[in-house]
Design goal:
This protein is about 35% helix and about 20% strand. By secondary structure, it is an alpha/beta fold.
Length: about 240
């Protein structure tokens, strides 16, 4: 693994994106350090030798520090009002969660786009060689970016993400062409409700996508089954590269 500044974001890189046929860009969740998802790379690569040398991984670190909120090392793509989130969850106001556009999302998306442009320039990559995704807030960011960009990535891996900006996403999804999408979510997730994840799956499927949806009995996490499905997606994508 190497650390590198790519455009506006500090990154951890596993493998060589310049020679790999595919590069997975995975964004961590709210409150996690920039290294949080790095261990996914050896775990995924270790599941199928056909990926060795063919898939690289880039893990960008979110721009906002949460040290002042008592989370030293914790980062965020945008700030979250945790008290309001807990109140909405406790009162089951799912509609308010999925309809809202989080303050700071636009800025995070624009920063992510600048990072991707720098990544493509640095390693001579085209968007169709990139798999985008992440965990929790990172999955929300990459979903939002995918729906709003005119470029088409090779695929999406959404681990414990959710629906936000519902009305905008519904309109934007109508304009997208189909690509492989893997989505996993725990049925006992106490942070991002399972129902909102199902809503995202349905929203995408109703607009021409074919989401491989993996529900699992568990909390807010990435299960082993999701890594297995990720490997399956990567192997299938490599066949066409």
């Amino acid at each position: 693994m190497q650390e590198q500044q790519i455009g506006p974001l500090k990154c951890r890189i596993v493998g060589n994106p310049k020679v790999a046929k595919l590069t997975a860009v995975f964004c961590h969740g709210y409150g996690a350090p920039g290294t949080d998802l790095v261990q996914l790379a050896p775990e995924i690569l270790g599941l199928d030798e056909r990926l060795d040398g063919q898939v690289a991984f880039v893990f960008p670190e979110a721009p906002l520090s949460l040290a002042e909120l008592g989370m030293p090392g914790g980062r965020a793509w945008w700030e979250i009002n945790m008290m309001r989130l807990q109140q909405l969850l406790q009162t089951r106001q799912i509609e308010k969660l999925v309809m809202a556009e989080p303050p700071g999302l636009k800025e995070a998306r624009e920063l992510f786009q600048k990072f991707l442009e720098a990544l493509q320039s640095e390693y001579d990559l085209t968007m169709d060689r990139l798999i985008l995704g992440g965990f929790s807030q990172g999955a929300m960011l990459t979903t939002d970016f995918f729906l709003r960009t005119s470029d088409q990535p090779a695929g999406l891996c959404l681990y414990s993400g959710t629906t936000i900006c519902l009305e905008d996403w519904q309109k934007l999804a109508q304009k997208k062409t189909k690509l492989p999408i893997l989505q996993s979510h725990g049925t006992q997730d106490p942070i991002l409700p399972y129902e909102a994840a199902v809503l995202l799956k349905d929203l995408l499927n109703e607009n021409g996508q074919e989401v491989e949806f993996l529900p699992f009995q568990g909390p807010h996490t990435i299960p082993y089954e999701a890594l297995e499905r990720t490997v399956k997606m990567l192997v299938e994508l490599l066949v066409h590269k």
